[in-house]
Amino acid sequence: MPVIVASDLDRTLIYSAAALALTMPDARAPRLLCVEVHESRPLSYMTETAARLLAELGDEAVFVPTTTRTRKQYQRINLPGPAPTYAICANGGHLLVDGVSDPDWHAQVTARLADQCAPLAEVQEHLLRAADPVWVRKHRVADDLFAYLVVERELLHEDWVKELGVWAENRGWTVSLQGRKIYAVPKPLTKSAAMREVARRTGAGLTLAAGDSLLDTDLLLAADQGWRPGHGELADTGFTAPSIRVLPDRGVLAGERILREFLGAVRGA
Fold first, then answer.
1. What is the pLDDT of residues 78-126, one digit of tens each?
2. Of 2, 191, 196, 231, which is most buried, counting CB atoms within 10 Å of its CB?
C-alpha cells in the first residue's frame, strides 16, 4: 500500500529570503535553489540537498503539497521531482488532480462551510472595519473561501490579533498569524479532510505530515506520524502530541531535516 506524505510548503519545505534563518558563517551557508519566481523576482527557496531529497521522496511515496495558498499562488512554485498527482490548496478548499481542481470535492467543501460557519462576507466586512490602516497593507480574499490581511508586523498590536481570534471563534472561524499575513479561515475548511480524501482514493496504508502553523494542527493530528520545525506558530505555543516529532531545526535547514525524516519513515514502512 502506498505511503502519503502531505506537507505544508511555506516555512516548512520552502522559505522566503526573510525566513531562511542562515545563522551560520557565510562560508558555511548551504547552496540554495530558487523554487518560486513572482513578478520576475525570486521568492522562495530550498537547499539543493532538500531538492534532491524531495525528488527521491516523489519517487518512493505519494507526495501531496498541502498549502493555504490559492491555486494561482501554488502554481507559481516549481518543486523538484516528479509532478505531484494530488495537491491540496486553499487550506483544503481545492483538491487538485493532475493540476486541475476536483469540482465534486470543492462542492462538498462549500456546502459544508455554508452549513457550519458564518459567511465569508461577514468576516471580510469585520476585517475591513476593524483593521487599522496604519499597519494594514492589503486586504485579500482567497478563492472565495477565506480572507487574509498583509500587515506591517512591527506596527501590529498582538492584542488585536487575540481579539480577532475570539471574535472569529464565536463564528466558527479561526485566526492564524504567519509572517506578515493574518489569516481568517473557516474551521470546517481543513487540510486534514483533503488528506483523508487522497488517502481514500489511493488506498494509502500510512500517512505522514509536516507543518509549522496553527492551520497545520489538524493535518498533523490526522496523520499517522507528523513533524514540526523549531520555528513558527506551533513552536511558539509549544504544541506537540504523541504522534508528532518536534524538531530543533529552524529556517531552511528545517526543511531539509523534515525531508530526511519523511524518507526515513517511508523506507522503514
1. 999 999 999 999 999 999 999 999 999 999 999 999 999 999 999 999 9
2. 191
Residue 179 confidence (pLDDT): 84
156-164 contact pairs (CB < 8 A, 24+): 156/182, 160/130, 160/131, 160/132, 164/127, 164/130
Question: Residue 172 — pLDDT band, cuts 50, 70, 90?
Answer: very high
Q: Find out whether 258 and 229 touch, Cβ atoms under 8 Å.
A: yes
The yes-or-no verdict on residue 178 having pLDDT over 90 is no
Distances (CA, A) of 222 to 184, 250, 264: 21, 24, 20
Q: Is 153 left (phi over 0), alpha (psi -120 to 50) or beta?
A: alpha
